[in-house]
Structure formats: structure tokens, C-alpha cells
Request: fold
Amino acid sequence: MENPLLLFPQLNISASKDKAYFKVMKSAIKEEPHKASKPGAKQKRNRLSLLLQKPEFHEGDHLGKPGDLTKAASVSPEEAVKWGESFDKLLSEKAGLDAFTKFLKTEFSEENIEFWIACEDYKKSKSAHEFLPKAKIIFETFIQKDAPKEVNLDFHTRAATSQSLGQPGRSTFDAAQSTVYRLMEQDSYPRFLSSAPYLRLLRPAGSARPAPRRRSRSFTGRDCPGAR
Reply:
């Protein structure tokens, strides 16, 4: 399998940002024990989502409110058109990745792209001893049953990923990441391309025109059928 990092060179993040990302996730897990029987699971999920939206997690996030893609800085219609060429192309562009993340937030499915980003960061670990703590954080946040940001995986993929945690390596989350990638590509990506905010990005600046107003006129006797 081709290394995803070679496909997405523009997604490289510095080691300091990687550490900050996993530090936020680790602290969130400690603060929020994940027990399926404990009430308030929705509130836990929301609080963890807020933690993951801290500057150290989405540094450079400049798109404004969730779903407001029209505020994407320095995105020309020509660049936005390229996002529609393929899902790979969308994720390879920083502005495209940000815009897609904003869109998923409007659908309450941002855990998918956050898991994908976490896997990309995980594979950039430079030593074997870094894999275990990072793998544990990702598993407890996104994969284990009733995880606060649980992604949709089939039983076999979830079980295989769980077993690989005993001796985690660079490919530990490859199967799970591929499953989530295909889900986004086949389901969320087409909706993103047909969404009104994305379509507005395709318009040249100043091309939007208000809907024409119909002029009203007074009703006269000449409008009556048979009038002379």
C-alpha cells in the first residue's frame, strides 16, 4: 500500500503540533471516563469536541463559522474547481481540508475527518516507543465501543485494530483509516460538492446577481377577457 504521506505532502505538520494534538486528546480522555452506562454521554462528546477545536488542534483554521465556506481565505474559483476533481485532491489542499471539515461539522460527522487526520499524524511518529501511547489515545477516542468520537467501523476491522494494539506499528490503523476514507469519499464528499456554500465558491467575485423582481402593474378594464 502506497504511503498516504506521499499522496498528501502538504498535510505535513511539525512535531510540536503533533505533540500538542495528542496532549489535548490525552487530557480530554482523562477528564472524561468513557462508560456506556453513565448518563451525559452527549455532553461528554460536546466537551471533547470543544477541546479538539483548540488552536493547537486546528491552527490556521480561518473559515469562520461551521459550514461558512465562503469565508475561505485566498481560495479562487479555479482552486475550488480542483477540489471537485477527486477526494484526494480536496484533502491535499489545506484550504480544501479545512472547508471539508467545516462541512462535516454541519452534518455532525466531523469525527471521521478528525480520525483520518489523527492517523496521518500517528504515522509520522519517528520512533517505536511513540506508537503505543499515541495508538492508545486514538483507539480510546475514535475506535473502542462508545468512544466519545466513535467512527463507523465493521466488527472485523474494529477487532483487528484492537488486536494490533498489543504491538502497534505504523500500519496499525491503516484498515480503519481506509474504511473511514471510503465512507467519506462515497457519502460525504458528493454532498459537499453539491452544497450551496461550495457552489458559491465556484462563482467569480462579483458575479452573484440578486433575483429579478417582477414589476407590478395596476389592473384595468382592458385586462378583462372580451374588453374592447
